């Protein structure tokens, strides 16, 4: 992504987050035989890419470059939410919910979201994307963007329900579930 970049202290929180997520991903990958470790690798990888895009958007000076990094970030939102759901379902009930069929069904909205962004049909996701006077990117959601937002909120609600179910049913998981929530 061509364009000038300038130092800003706003890059440090997302860069630190990306490093922590990468470390969690490596740790999880080394323990991939443990239930829910592989979905956690996905959450860590996609989350690190997302926050890396946030840092680069903050450092970008040119409006076109800021918008390009905003679109880069949008590639990773649906995969993070979906991998997060896979992690929670596998953590709450290993081997019960993550069948091939369910994984394929969960991947369809993610692939459609990525396809819309990569093929240049992002106007179906955002009606208007512009850089505000303060330097932040402001996007107006279009119908596909609203559907993806509803999808993301739905995944979060399922996550919360599954974790609350685990909290109530398993006393030994209460502290980890409280931390996850």
Question: How would you portray this structure in words?
Answer:
The structure is a single chain. With 181 residues, this protein is mainly alpha-helical. Helix content is 69%, strand content 6%. It contains six helices and two strands; from the N terminus they run H-H-H-H-E-E-H-H. It has helices at residues 12-30, 37-59, 63-92, 100-118, 143-169, 174-180, and strands at residues 126-131, 137-141. A two-stranded antiparallel sheet has the order 1-2. Strand 1 (126-131) and strand 2 form a beta hairpin. Helix 3 runs parallel beside helix 5 (143-169). The termini are far apart. The mean pLDDT is 90.
Strand order of the largest sheet: 1-2
**Portion in beta strands:** 5-15%
Structural class by SSE content: mainly alpha
Distance between the termini: 36 Å
The count of β-strands is 2
For the largest beta-sheet, the strand count, sense and barrel status come to: 2 strands, antiparallel
H and E order: HHHHEEHH
Overall geometry comes to: globular
User: Stretches where pLDDT falls below 50 for ≥5 residues?
Assistant: none
| Mean pLDDT figure | 90
Helix fraction by DSSP (H/I, runs of at least 4): 55-70%
Count of helical stretches = 6
Radius of gyration, whole Å: 18 Å
């Amino acid at each position: 992504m061509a364009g000038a970049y300038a130092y800003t202290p706003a890059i440090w929180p997302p860069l630190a987050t990306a490093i922590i997520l990468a470390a969690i991903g490596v740790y999880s990958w080394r323990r991939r035989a443990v239930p829910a470790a592989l979905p956690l690798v996905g959450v860590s990888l996609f989350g690190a890419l997302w926050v890396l895009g946030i840092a680069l958007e903050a450092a970008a000076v040119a409006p076109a470059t800021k918008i390009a990094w905003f679109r880069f970030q949008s590639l990773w939102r649906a995969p993070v939410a979906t991998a997060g759901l896979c992690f929670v379902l596998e953590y709450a009930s290993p081997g019960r919910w993550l069948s091939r069929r369910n994984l394929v069904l969960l991947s369809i909205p993610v692939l459609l979201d990525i396809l819309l962004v990569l093929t240049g049909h992002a106007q179906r996701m955002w009606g208007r994307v512009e850089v505000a006077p303060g330097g932040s990117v402001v996007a107006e959601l279009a119908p596909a963007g609203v559907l993806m937002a509803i999808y993301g909120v739905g995944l979060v609600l399922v996550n919360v329900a599954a974790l609350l179910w685990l909290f109530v049913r398993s006393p030994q998981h209460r502290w980890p579930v409280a931390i996850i929530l």
